[in-house]
Amino acid sequence: LTQLTYLDLWNNEIGAAGAASLADLTQLTYLDLWNNEIGAAGAASLADLTQLTALNLRNNEIGDAGAAALADLTQLTSLDLENNQIGDAGAASLAALTHLTYLNLSDNPVVGSTPFSTMRRLTSLNLKKTKIQDLSPLRPLLERGLEAKWEEYGSGNGINVYDCPLIHPPPEIVKQGQAAVLNYLREIDTQGVDHLYEAKVLILGEGGAGKTSLLRRLYQANRPLPAEEESTKGIDIHRHQFANREGKPFQLNVWDFGGQQIYHATHQFFLTKRSLYILVDDTRNNSKTVHDEGFKYWLEVIETLSERSPVLIFQNEKAGRSKSIAEAGIKGRFPNVIEVYRGNLEKHNAATKLEEAIRLHVQKLPHVGDAVPAQWVTIRSELEKIKKGQPFISQKDYFQLYASYLEEDRPKALRLSQYFHDLGVFLHFQDDQLLQRYVILQNDWATEAVFKVLDDEPTKSRKGRFTQADCQRIWAHSTYADMHPELLALMEKFELCYKLPDQRPDTWLSPQLLSPSAPELFKDWAKPDDLVLFYQYDFLPKGMISRLMVRKNHLVRQPDLCWIDGAYFEHGNSELLAGLMDSGQEIELRARGPQRKELISVIASDLDTLNDSFEGLRDKVRKLVPCICSNCRLSTTPESYEEGRLLKRKHDGKLTIECPESYEDVSVLELLDGLKLDMLPQWDKPAQTGPPGADDRHSASTEGSGSPPLRTIKIFLASSSELKEDRNGFELHFRQVNDRLLKKGIYLQILRWENFLDAMSETRLQDEYNEEVRNCDIFLSLFKTKTGKYTEEEFDAAHRAFKDSGKPLIYTYFMKNIIPTDKRLREDLISLWNFQDKLSGLGHYHTHYASIEDLKLQFQQQLDKLIEEGKL
Q1: Domain 198-362, CATH number (from 3.40.190.10, 3.40.50.300, 1.10.150.130, 3.30.9.10)
Q2: pTM of the predicted protein model
Q3: Secondary structure of 705-725 as H, E, C letters
């Protein structure tokens, strides 16, 4: 085998000894040993394979010593070392590999970025989830056009620093894009640096627990404690300054949240990460352990919505009553709980120790003391002075303020505004055509306006309906007088209300104020033949159904049939009921009618998006697919299977699963295919030319925003049904990539046809599909064990069109797989190999991929290159 040039042994546990046995294969140019436990010794065995140009050692724990052993492989252009316990010493050893164009060091404890600055040929550097803090050593790469990115699933060209503890520049700058990063570095060159000493403290707890009393003991000593019947309406914000360890002014923005149930769903918009939380526990209640609601709910809220920000618990010993709690259990389940403090707030010094702890821990928050261009701090200070006298300023006034300290530059001023918005300094919604005209300096001015509607008794009596006349009454104060359209836009942005169609006068509905009870109509609504999907949560944020209703309000024809925890959607003669189950931790989607599959796919897609908007929910929600055995089909409460478990069985080739009730074997593929459409129906898409989700008022390309005109790139995605999951993963990934590309004025439209290998032979729609192929920008085909007549027709159509007009661009990927012994599959493989020979004869270069992640990486790199070179 000494003439081998290509070898793929991924996921075979060959160990160090197995790697050593490859040392004589010196002609290898490509080697994939992903997940093989080879360690440092195994990596050292590969040092003589000096002809290698591509090496994948992901998940092998080679460490610094193993990385050093690779330094002689100077012909490498692609090196993947993700998750290998490589630190700064190992990274420094890799600096010798100056031919690298792709390097993946994600999930390694690398701190310094200096070694990569000399790798001038790099086009893709993945440093995701490393310990990198400073990107300034990479400035040569950044100046050359290598874009800094903050992308969890990004894998294309650029420098990916997702989830790194960045200080220089801060993550908020990186998230704005390359221009913001370079502007940050250049302005530091010209201005020098100053530091922002500011933090947010949030006080949470049940209504009546003593949150406002605590605030007053901490920072409002001259104010008396509130009377027992007083309660905070919405949110109160207090500002407090103290001198930090360096003697510099440190500003605390202390948010006191109302504890009543009506506010819980709205509070989540203001529960920010990189903040300090104070949980107030009333010792008169019976909550003592992590399982009791008084601790469980609030600590899960903080864990889920703030990315495990630090928490201090304060026990308010009302009337001198103490209470023991299970501190060890609470801290064990929620390690972000730092300490527990106690005191009777009727005494003036009850919160002294807590106040000292707050000073200590806010100075430890990740963003505190960020080094930023010096004039940014000056502008921030000027805005703080203005805020004391007025709740908002116009965008025009903000630009004038910016220009009084820095050269007038609208894009740069907007980038600074976005940075302050992301930090929570003020509110400036640049992506909203109406809201972008104002910078809201006083956050409590905005929150108070929102809560005035939710607290309005006439509006509550009408189950959440309100009109312009109501707005004039509710927002009669002079500071709100000319801002009613903007305040309504703000409520819509927070998904707190939507405008009802065909109502005179114009009427809005806030679903949070609907009836708490379901209409009698739905008491026995379930039927055995309904299409059902369940979402099971470890923690379910409040208001999910209300927000889903706002998002899909065009499918809510009868809002009177909705309630706080349930929404009724309709399309044509099909209907769907989305409701919170009695457990409080499960949402059921139940659909019926001729388009029930389409309707449940539409609603489930938006619920998935809503779930994904909470980063902390990703490991706390499971999708359950109902059983379709002969017994369960006749039941309104069928058994169900976790979708992830079904996908694993499919991956492992276990294509049936036993129903625990009937013991009947059920097809895994039928379960997975029964509820999900691969392309959502056209009737759910807004009538617009841009990407889904943009409308006239909330357009991403607003006048004056500097956004480029939108350009659609059509990608035709073809493969056989055996690669359906790869197609699903590919499409999901590039739907997420669209969020980044929209900023560049690009929208990816992915065209795909399900099961076309079977359907084409029956309906003969291939001619239509070939026409779609000819009209697309990119033709992408995936293969595993077989090809077929119609797949080749599509390729031939694309190839002819490319020869005639230069488009579509054609990319062909073959999945790496084990050679089967089954005769039929061997025949399929022979047809596949014949097709590969055909491609070679045409001069068409095809590539292989090991997994969906590998496919996304390869195509993302190609796509970025095409966009960068202006070929799309």
Answers
A1: 3.40.50.300
A2: 0.73
A3: CCCCCCEEEEEEEEECHHHHH
